[in-house]
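REQUEST ID: PR-0412
SUBMITTED BY: lab tech R.K.
PRIORITY: routine
TASK: structure prediction, single protein chain
INPUT:
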Amino acid sequence: MYALADCNNFFASCERVFRPELNGRPVIVLSNNDGCAVARSNEAKALGIKMGDPLFKISDIVEKNNVAVFSGNFALYGDMSRRVQEVLRGYSPCIEVYSIDEAFLDLDGIDVDFDAYAKEISRECWRQTSIPVSVGIAPTKTLAKIASKLCKKYPKLKGGCYMHKPQDIEKVLRKFPAEDVWGIGRRMMKRLETMGVKTAWDYVSLPETTVRSLFHLPGFRTWKELKGIPCIEMEDIIEPRKTICVSRSFSKEITDRSELCEQVANFAESAVTKLRGQKSIALEMIVFAITNRFKEYAPQAFSSSHVVIPDGTSDHRVFIRHALEGCRDLWRPGYGYKKAGVVITKLVQEEGFSHSLFSDMEALEKESRLSSSIDSINKTYGCGAVLLGSQGTGEIKMSREHQSPHYTTLWSDIPKAKVR
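STATUS: complete
OUTPUT:
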């Protein structure tokens, strides 16, 4: 058996943890630069606010219905996600974190009343974190995701649903939209629509030969999972990324080269931290900057600089130096840059990598020890504790007019209780 624990309206729920007066009030969370709605409470969804709606287009709805608006507070969301995961680890020896608000639990070998177990997990997550969590348990991961969606739709399930009887699974699949099935993407759905497939049961009813020939292995695995045959295993080992990209849009256009270089240096540092986190080294890097494409009358440019690093490394200083060189190369005076970023490519695992015969191994060892020391200091005292080269001390220039306090990650923002 598998369980899928899904945090309900996660970002909006995180904002409500420390603001209980928001319960029952519509809440939305915005993307970078306060652009679009990326999370909505049920009350906000009921008002017709859709995922991705730009704030300026829904401003009338927001004002008329007293919608609480928040800028993304990803430090808070990441910490709350970690707290939920800690609760989940008490219910299974094997947990796969699928996303910031979802995790699979392997329940193999656990002999309990699974319906009561699902409800207990949901209840305990709420008790310890105040985050509402829907827990679906089923014979496959795909069915478990469907079961968790039922919890959100039917409050009488009390946050937990155990779906295992063939007749119950068929009843659910006959009403469940095929486009909402995990593993069925938009392109696949377009073809299914031409075949008259509308529900998950319609898809399950297709002949095996048809599924194999048209949708190949991924579609066939989804088809089998919906039939209750497990074929998507738990992923205990997370595959390292093959590329790492760190980029941001700026709240205001940058017209000063040193200012752009400062931001690019910050992006390079963040990318290298991720690179080192998965114990990889890289052989190439791309630095890019983009002007504001919405200003048609202004000069436009998509500028990039490609850097080859012959002797692969994960040294902070090397990447920041190359990032700054690339930024200076692509800079064009008279242009206002709205977005920039760093992409690290050609990643290989550090273990087993063979350096060139002419590499200075003693220097590489010193670089490795220095980078490890930087990692340790940043981990202890917070990201940005060590600044290199042209890194700036200020935050990336983004609009965050509606950001809530960092309740769980900054001492200065910890809520204060007063006794009267």
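NOTES: Residues 96 and 236 are 6 Å apart (CA to CA).
REVIEWED BY: pending
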